[in-house]
Predict the structure.
Amino acid sequence: MESLQNQLPEDVGAMPPAAPVYTRQTLPPKGSCWYCEKPLDSVRRFCGKECHDAFDEEAEFTR
């Protein structure tokens, strides 16, 4: 059986970067949709998938 050391790359810098954290996941709930401002409860961030996707698309273009 091969040891674990032989399976790992020698150069740690060659490993792929971690997946980026989506901006929408770091948004605090504010009582309204972050995209269209529709009133929401104190847990949700977006009123639906359309606003969720539109927010992601807009965030991608404004980087």
Notes: The mean pLDDT is 78. The radius of gyration is 19 Å. Residues 29 and 45 are 5 Å apart (CA to CA).
